[in-house]
Each structure stands twice: as structure tokens, then as C-alpha cells.
Design brief:
Blueprint (H helix, E strand, L loop, with lengths): L16 E3 L2 E3 L2 H11 L5 E3 L11 H8 L3 H13 L7 H11 L4 H9 L1 H4 L3 H14 L8 H12 L3 H10 L2 E2 L2 E2 H7 L7 H21 L6 H18 L3 H11 L14 H8 L4 H6 L1 H6 L8 H10 L2 H7 L3 H13 L13 H15 L9 E6 L15 H15 L3 E7 L2 E4 L8 H8 L11 H8 L6 E6 L9 H12 L4 E6 L15 E5 L3 H11 L4
Helix pairs in contact: 1-2, 1-4, 2-3, 3-4, 3-5, 4-5, 4-7, 9-11, 9-12, 11-12, 12-13, 13-14, 17-20, 19-20, 21-22, 23-24
């Protein structure tokens, strides 16, 4: 079941303190923030920082207070409901719980490993966190050995074969390491076959299984691993294509040399999810696999515009915008890969962006989105490599079309001007509404004051700015005054699109959030904040 469609479960860790000024930040809020994006503060930063005990104080307070099992349940809940925008904080927290002196906390954490470490990469990351957290004593005790063994044994052989051949090592660990250290004993024949492959390679598999009579399930796994091996060593392009099509092999299982073939890419693209396909458009164009006006371009464009596929992918329009803007730029990160953007592909991405807006689920809140035009919006947003005007315009369009009660304004020193953003606008037209002659200084309290003076009832203020100053008014105090007047616990989100360490939020007020930079994860952080998840 898709996380967005699951009914949300009550939080195991729940504390909410009411004060005269509203809701204050509690240990439970700090914990959920940490599990969501890796920081207990009211600031989400697009730059990910290393995780450590020193920035997980609320996590430690809950565990030391005998509530470790509740923490594990909270980790599981936030993951199952799709609220964790970064996976590593949850894995770090799980590793901390698994190291604790209390037996119940350790047991709860290790039982959750196979549920939370859904991929080999996450399992490797969890084990590495345990290694970093260990204090003097060895980490490979009976409990961890059992948890790792259960991870492998809980999967069917074919799924395990697919997973381990796509990701063999990460974070300094390999499957061979984990199998050796956990003293792995397979509980069924198909898992035993995969374990033999991981420890002894294909040669070891042939020695044991080559001439042996095999059950139907074992034969399927054997044939899959054989296909992976053939793909590694074959120089016959037609053979590679046949293996991809027959066994649904993926890009990670194909050697780099084979990825220079247009026909091999065509075979891979047949089953490739549309979101993954979009990420490869630059390479496909650079390597001349997509020639202007060719049937290949037409086929790619048809897939990108497939509304059913877009709905199934459940990707946010902002993610598609990032792909689109990067593709239009004509080069990859640091300019290593260059291409001439295909106009048909560009149009298809624009179409996909607009169509995916209808897939965004409304929160039912009343929004005031304010864009600061006191400075130029031509800068590049930290974290997404696209212009800040594109970020602001896209978010205005999404909110205006998905949230029925949304007001968009632009503001500069001393002036707030309503801005009409309609559903039939292109991104460029929406951006044009936001591009005005800059002047003056930023005063982030202005939109709140304007809402108060015009008797606007707002649940969530979202401010987009390129400036790095707060203005003359204390924005947090202005928000408190507005709350008292309107009788609404209004929230405030300030998006410092080119800032890396700015903060306006009152650390004691759980209704204010700072976002430094702007990336695809910021979209989910905003939604979590609006819906009281964090």
C-alpha cells in the first residue's frame, strides 16, 4: 500500500505542551524532527550533516527514560507512513536503541531491522552506525547475528538475488562480510543458493548446483544468477539484450561498456520506472541515443507524458521541475556530461510537471504564500541547482492549484501586492508574476501584518526569500500577535533559498520552521510540518 494512502496511526511518542503563546517545542517534537530530517532543531538544511549522539539529545532522553521501545515504534510508524525524508536518521536512531543497556529496547530495535532496512544499502548503513557507536566491546553479539541472519532468511530467494546483485557493498561493508560475521545459516534452499553465490561466487555455485537436480524455485534463482553472470562477461550485444528482457535485469547489473549501446538502453528502458527514466535523459541525449525527431524520442516522450505512470510514481511536481531544469541546462554536475536539450523532451517534461500537480493531495489548510521581491530572484537555490524564481513559482503553482484556500502575494519594503497564479499558467508565466524591480530590504513580518490588517485567516504562512536579513520587525512576535487576534494557531515557514545557516524561528515555538536552501526533500518537510507530524 502506498504510504500516502495509509491511515495514519497514533504516535507512540506523543507530548504536547500548551503555553500562553501557543504550543511549545517538546522532546517528542524534537525526536520526530530528528527522525524526519536528521536535526532536532526547527531548521531543515539541504546540506546533510553527520549524525551523532550530540545532536540527538531528545532521542537519548527517551531511551534513558525507559521509553526505548516507544522510540522504535515511532521510527517504524514514521517510516511506514512515508514521513522520513532522509533514511539515515532512522537507521542511526535504531542503531542507538540496539546498543542500549536495557534488554527490551535492544530486542525491539533488532526485531525492527528487517522491516526498516528494506534494501542492502540500508542494512549496511545500520551496521556501520553500530560500529561507530560501539564503546570498547565487540558489536557482533548473538542478538545482532540473529538480526542480520533474519534479514537474509526473511526474503524469498529471487528477491534476495535481485537485491544483492544490484547492491553488493556500501558504507564499508559487503554481503560477504555480514554473512561471515553473523554466522549465517540459511533456512531454505533458495536463500542457501544466494548465500553460496555471495561467499563463493558463480564458480562456487556451479560446483554445488551445476549438475544437481534442482526444485522449481531453486532453478529460478539459479537461472537469474546465471543471467547476471552472463551479462557481466558476454561481449554479444544481442545476448545482453535477451538477458535484460528475459530476466528484467536493471542498469546496476549491466557493465559500463554495455551501456554505450543504444539497443541495450532500449531494452533497459522498457521496464524502467518513469522517474528513473527521467534521471537518465541527459546521458541518453549526450550519448546520441535520442536523435531529434526520431522514433526513440517519440517513445520516450510518450512515456514521460503517461498520466497513469505519473500517478503511479507519486512523485511531487517539484522533483520533475528539478529534472526539467537540469535537462534544459545541458550539462551535468560540474559540467562533466554535456548535451543539446531536445525540444520535444523539454515539452514532455513541462507537460509532466503540470499534470503531476493534480496528484498532490490537499492538506485542507488556509495558506498565504509570500515571495520576497526586495532582491533579485535570479540566484541558484542551494540544494537543487535551479533558479530561486523557478522554485518560488513552482511552489506557488502547486499550492494555488491543490489547496483551495491559498493567497499568493509578493512583497518588498513597505508593500505587499496580491499576485494572481492560475491553473492555466505555464511556469514561465507564473515566474513572470514574481519578477519585479527589486528594491529595499527584506521584512519577513510584512505578509503577516498584511494578513492581519486585511482580516485574512491563515493557517500557514510560507515565505520565500533570497535575502539574508530579518527586517526591522521581530517576525516571531508579529506571528504571536496575529495568532492572538485571529484566534488561530498559525504556522510560519521561512524558505531562505540561498541561505545555509539562517534561522528566524523561536526555538520554543513549534509553529515556526526555517528551511535553508530548497530541494525535493524540503517539499516533504513542509507537508510534515503543516500536518503536525514534526
Amino acid at each position: 500500500m502506498d504510504p500516502a494512502s495509509r491511515p495514519e496511526q497514533p504516535s507512540a511518542v506523543n507530548e504536547q505542551v500548551l503555553t500562553s503563546s501557543g504550543r511549545s517545542v517538546t522532546g517528542a517534537v524534537c525526536l520526530r524532527r530528528f527522525l524526519c530530517y536528521g536535526s532536532e532543531t526547527s531548521t531543515y538544511n539541504t546540506k546533510e550533516h553527520p549524525l551523532g549522539i550530540e545532536n540527538a539529545l531528545s532521542l537519548m532522553q527517551f531511551i534513558e527514560g525507559g521509553r526505548g521501545c516507544e522510540v522504535v515504534e515511532e521510527i517504524k510508524r514514521l517510516n511506514s507512513e512515508g514521513h522520513t525524508v532522509r533514511p539515515n536518521p532512522s537507521l542511526f536512531a535504531l542503531a542507538v536503541c540496539s546498543q542500549h543497556a536495557e534488554c527490551k529496547t535492544r530486542q525491539c530495535a533488532l526485531r525492527a531491522v528487517k522491516e526498516l532496512c528494506r534494501t542492502p544499502a540500508r542494512l549496511f548503513t545500520f551496521v556501520q552506525y553500530k560500529k561507530e557507536l560501539k564503546e570498547g566491546s565487540g558489536m557482533w553479539g548473538r542478538a545482532l547475528r540473529r538480526a542480520v541472519t533474519d534479514w537474509y532468511n526473511s526474503q524469498d530467494g529471487l528477491s534476495l538475488a535481485q537485491a544483492v546483485t544490484k547492491c553488493n557493498h556500501r558504507a564499508g561493508w559487503s554481503h560477504q562480510d555480514l554473512l561471515r560475521l553473523s554466522h549465517m545459516k540459511p533456512t531454505n534452499d533458495t536463500v542457501a543458493l544466494v548465500c553460496k553465490y555471495m561467499t563463493k561466487g558463480w564458480k562456487g555455485v556451479l560446483e554445488v548446483y551445476g549438475d544437481k537436480e534442482k526444485s522449481e524455485d531453486v532453478q529460478k534463482v539459479f537461472a537469474y544468477l546465471e543471467a547476471v553472470e552472463k551479462a557481466k562477461h558476454s561481449t554479444d550485444e544481442l545476448a545482453i539484450i535477451h538477458l535484460i528482457e528475459e530476466h528484467q535485469l536493471e542498469k546496476e547489473q549491466i557493465l559500463t561498456n554495455h551501456l554505450k549501446s543504444k539497443e541495450v538502453w532500449n531494452a533497459l528502458l522498457k521496464e524502467m520506472p518513469v522517474v528513473v527514466l527521467m534521471r537518465h535523459l541527459g546521458r541518453l541525449t549526450a550519448d546520441k541515443f535520442l536523435s531529434p525527431g526520431s522514433p526513440d524520442v517519440a517513445a520516450i516522450c510518450e512515456r514521460i507524458q503517461d498520466e497513469t505512470a505519473l500517478k503511479k510514481a507519486k512523485t511531487h511536481p517539484f522533483n520533475i521541475l528539478v529534472v526539467s531544469e537540469n535537462y534544459k541546462r545541458g550539462h551535468g554536475k560540474r559540467g562533466k556530461l554535456k548535451w543539446e536539450p531536445d525540444c520535444d523532451v523539454v515539452q514532455s517534461l513541462d507537460f509532466a510537471f503540470h499534470k503531476s500537480i493534480s496528484n498532490v493531495e490537499s492538506t485542507g489548510k488556509r495558506f498565504l504564500v509570500a515571495v520576497d521581491v526586495s532582491s533579485s530572484l535570479s540566484s541558484v537555490a542551494h540544494g537543487s541547482s535551479i533558479s530561486t524564481v523557478a522554485v518560488a513559482a513552482a511552489m506557488c503553482m502547486v499550492l494555488a492549484q491543490t489547496e483551495p484556500d491559498t493567497q499568493v502575494v509578493v512583497f518588498s519594503e513597505g508593500a505587499v501586492v496580491p499576485c494572481a497564479i492560475s491553473s492555466d499558467m505555464t511556469l514561465m508565466q507564473a515566474a513572470a508574476q514574481l519578477i519585479q524591480s527589486p528594491g529595499g530590504s527584506t521584512d519577513s513580518a510584512l505578509p503577516i501584518t498584511w494578513a492581519s490588517e486585511n482580516d485574512k485567516t491563515v493557517d500557514v504562512f510560507i515565505i520565500f526569500t533570497n535575502n539574508q536579513t530579518f527586517g526591522r520587525e521581530n517576525t516571531a512576535e508579529t506571528l504571536q500577535t496575529y495568532r492572538q487576534k485571529s484566534g488561530t494557531f498559525s504556522k510560519l515557514i521561512v524558505c531562505w533559498m540561498i541561505g545555509s545557516s539562517l534561522a528566524i524561528a523561536d526555538p520554543e515555538d513549534c509553529g515556526i520552521l526555517d528551511i535553508c536552501g530548497f530541494d525535493s526533500r524540503a517539499v516533504d518537510v513542509i507537508r510534515n510540518f503543516v500536518l503536525d507530524v514534526i
